[in-house]
Each structure stands twice: as structure tokens, then as C-alpha cells.
Design a protein that fits this description.
Length: 454
């Protein structure tokens, strides 16, 4: 786990020592927000190998920040390789310890420095969503990206920040009983943009609320996050937030860029191909060219062989199920799918195939019989209640694609397969009507969150 925002210099001595010695904390980002704490953050990062820092001037201090302070900040960031971001900086119109115009001025100037240096920023925003977004956009903060620290804002603000290329960091606040609205935002935050932080010694999570917070408490927040995000375990939260942190803060990564198989929530996923015969508007690969799924880089330069896949699976009974699902359409490699599924079933495993349902556009439906007894469940992306919506959202090249998906579901049901029809709640899709269509076809139903991948 990586605590992406803490104030190590403000911790009690025993909490500080616990944090730097705890091997479950891979990295810590300690934050300096004024001259004194900036110096402390630099000192600690130089003394402790796994500690890096972000340095900047908090909006509370803006009234006292002069141009020479900003020159000093820039020089420190240039000279110290352990400085991984500038901040926290931003706007706080809740407490207003500094004049609003002065806050905006210092915020803009720090973004400009970050752009000059080519490093990300850490943003504090409280009761200032509209103004924060406007400044980020006007100052071209998207050129360096960054982190929306201790996010407590609206869904709309989160989405705008993600669209600017920012990561969204959640703290112990998501564990509080009165944080239902924020938990709904967590559910809809793209998993490739989520981070975790403690902001210790502040904002202790609910199980230890009222006590000074510390980095080791990050697991309380992670446990709540795992319950909020669909199909996600605590291990998944650990991996995906850690990999996200390594990317934005330019920390050491494991260097693995090709993932043939990957585990999410004790299910083993097989990335059989990158090829796909749809160009769905909601697809992450189409929107962002981003191939990160819950901490895995799900992309392969070539289609893996049957032997490679089987070797990576190992014992299929270790997993709840083996799922053919990557960024491509697995049925495009029908023969490989069939051979691997046959091997998995011979070893006692369970097989699910996530498909767009377009198999019958390039293969006679009689071929589907070959997978009887080899595939337990078909998860079919129905995605719309009618052809017009389907064509708009999924952008097929075949004019009869929607009809072929319907035919696939009916054929699979007639052959005795378990079929689950799914849809992404993309704007413009009537989910209620899509559910009604799925059930009228005899399929089970599962709604998927647009922003949640994996």
C-alpha cells in the first residue's frame, strides 16, 4: 500500500517510527505546505528511503507567500530528486484563512512552476469546485496532471478532474457514517484514477476516529473502498491504488507491460487478444488509450499461444472462475478459447466468457454447440434496449449487429448455457428497458457502472 498524502513531521514519535518501519507500506508521500514543513518533508525524504515528498504552499498560507518564496520552492524542487510533486496547493473558500484573490494568485503561480519543471501537482479544494476547475483548465494543469487530494467533492467535479487527467485521492472520510454521498462518488470513480491517503495526523478513519491518524490506518479506508467498488477485493484495492500512485508520482514500477492473465477478486482473467469488432463509446481503450485495469497493464503486443495461457493459469481450481475477458473480444480466437476452456474443465475449473455477442456475425451458430460443456457462463454485453441506441453507443461495423447479439443470447439459452446479459449505464441508455429486454430473452441481468472498469 502507498499512502499518497501524509504529514510525517506532524506525527507522534511512536506513530512516525511505526510508519517508516511497517513493511506493508511500500512508499509514503509526506507533504510540506509552508516553509517549515517543506524543509521537514525534504529532510525526512532524504533520511528514509521509502519516503518521497510533495512540497508547496497551502491556500491557508497564501497571504504570506511572496515571489521569493516561490523562487525558493522552484529551486528546491529542481535540486531534490525526492520531490515528486508540487503541493498541496489550491483553494479553500470554507475557512478562508487567506484572501480569495491571493489564494488564486498563488495557486496559479505554483501550477506555472510545475509546468516549467514537468512535475504533477497536489490540489486542495474546499468549497471551491467551480473556481478550482477553472484555474486548472486556464493554467493548462492537464499538461502535468496531478492529484485531487482528500477528495470530498461532487460526482460532476470528480468527472471533470478525471477528464483533465487528474487522479482522485480518498481519505478516511469515506468511512464516516454521514459520507453516503461521497461513497457514491467513490463507486463511480474510474479505478485507473483512484488513490488512497491518510492525511495523517488528520482525518482518522471511523474505527479509530477521535485519535491522531497515522499511515498504518490506511487499511481501514482500503477495506471500505473494497466494499464499494464492484468485483473488488482488498488485494485489488492495494494493487490498483499502488500502481496508480507509482504512475502519477513516477515511483519505481514492476516494469511489466504485458499481462496475459490477471487476478481480480479471486477470479483469473485471460487476456486472449487485443482485437475487437466494436468501438464502444464507453470503452476505456477507445476514450483514453489507457490499458490499466485495477493495477494491471492489460495489453499484449501479440496474441498469446494456448500453451502460454495454460502455463500461466496453473491450477484453475484455485480461483472462483476462469474468465475470458481482456480488452479484446475472446470469441475472435474461437479455436484457442475452445482448447483452453477444454483444459480448464478437465482440471475441474469453472469457465466464463465475457463477450460482445457478435460471434454469429462471423461464424455459423452451429459452431456454438462445440462449447457446450466447456463454457459454464456467457456474459453478453447487450448494452441497449434497441438497435438505434446500440448503434450509437457500440458503433458496430455490421448493420445487423444488434440483431446478432439478440440471436446469440437466444441460441446460447437454447443450448443450455447460463447467460447473463449486461449493460453499461452510459448516458442515453435506458437501463430499465434494457433489463426488461434481457429478461424477456430468458437471460439473467447485470448492470455495470460506466466509469468502473474490471
Amino acid at each position: 500500500m502507498i499512502d499518497t498524502h501524509c504529514h510525517l513531521d506532524l506525527l507522534k514519535k511512536e506513530d512516525y517510527e511505526e510508519a517508516i518501519k511497517d513493511n506493508s507500506l511500500e512508499y509514503l508521500i509526506t507533504v510540506g505546505y509552508d516553509r517549515k514543513t517543506i524543509q521537514n518533508a525534504l529532510r525526512i525524504s532524504q533520511e528514509v528511503e521509502k519516503v518521497y515528498c510533495a512540497i508547496g504552499f497551502h491556500p491557508h498560507t497564501a497571504d504570506n507567500v511572496k515571489d521569493e518564496d516561490l523562487d525558493w520552492l522552484k529551486e528546491l524542487a529542481q535540486k531534490n530528486p525526492k520531490v515528486k510533486a508540487l503541493g498541496e496547493m489550491g483553494l479553500d473558500f470554507y475557512k478562508e484563512y487567506s484572501d480569495r484573490k491571493k489564494q488564486e494568485d498563488i495557486f496559479r503561480k505554483q501550477i506555472q512552476i510545475a509546468r516549467e519543471l514537468g512535475i504533477p501537482i497536489v490540489v486542495h479544494s474546499r468549497d471551491a469546485e467551480e473556481e478550482t476547475y477553472r484555474i486548472l483548465k486556464e493554467e493548462k494543469a492537464y499538461e502535468v496532471g496531478g492529484v485531487m487530494h482528500c477528495f470530498t467533492g461532487s460526482y460532476e467535479f470528480m468527472k471533470k478532474c478525471v477528464d483533465l487527467g487528474f487522479y482522485i485521492s480518498y481519505s478516511g472520510i469515506i468511512t464516516y457514517p454521514n459520507a453516503d454521498a461521497l461513497r457514491e462518488v467513490v463507486k463511480r470513480t474510474p479505478t485507473q484514477r483512484i488513490l488512497l491517503e491518510t492525511d495523517s495526523p488528520f482525518l482518522a478513519p471511523q474505527p479509530v476516529r477521535g485519535k491522531p491518524n497515522k499511515p498504518t490506518n490506511i487499511w481501514h479506508t482500503a477495506e471500505v473502498m473494497a466494499k464499494l467498488i464492484p468485483n473488488t477485493s482488498l488485494e485489488d484495492v492495494d494493487r490498483m491504488t499502488s500502481e496508480n500512485a507509482k504512475l502519477i508520482f513516477n515511483l519505481n514500477t514492476n516494469g511489466k507491460k504485458e499481462t496475459i492473465t490477471y487476478v481480480i477478486n479471486n477470479k483469473l482473467y485471460i487476456n486472449l487478444t487485443n482485437k475487437c469488432n466494436l468501438h464502444c463509446a464507453f470503452c476505456q481503450r477507445e476514450r483514453e488509450r489507457n490499458f490499466m485495469v485495477k493495477g494491471y497493464w492489460v495489453w499484449v503486443e501479440r496474441d498469446p499461444s494456448v500453451e502460454e495461457v495454460i502455463r500461466e493459469i496453473g491450477d484453475p481450481t484455485k480461483y472462483e472462475e476462469i474468465v475470458f475477458c481482456g480488452y479484446g473480444e475472446p470469441t475472435l480466437r474461437f479455436s484457442a478459447l475452445k482448447e483452453i476452456a477444454k483444459w480448464v474443465k478437465s482440471k475441474g475449473g469453472k469457465v466464463r466468457v465475457d463477450t460482445n455477442g457478435l460471434l454469429l456475425t462471423f461464424m455459423p451458430k452451429e459452431r456454438l454447440k462445440e462449447l457446450v460443456g466447456l463454457v459454464d457462463v456467457w456474459s453478453v454485453s447487450l448494452n441497449a434496449p434497441d438497435k438505434e441506441t446500440y448503434d450509437k453507443v457500440c458503433k458496430p461495423t455490421q448493420p445487423d449487429a444488434f440483431e446478432k447479439v439478440i440471436e446469440f443470447i437466444k441460441t446460447a439459452k437454447s443450448l443450455g448455457f447460463e447467460v447473463v446479459a449486461t449493460a453499461v449505464d452510459y448516458p442515453g441508455v435506458d437501463m430499465k428497458k434494457t433489463e426488461e429486454l434481457a429478461k424477456s430473452l430468458g437471460a439473467k441481468w447485470r448492470a455495470r457502472i460506466y466509469e468502473s472498469v474490471g
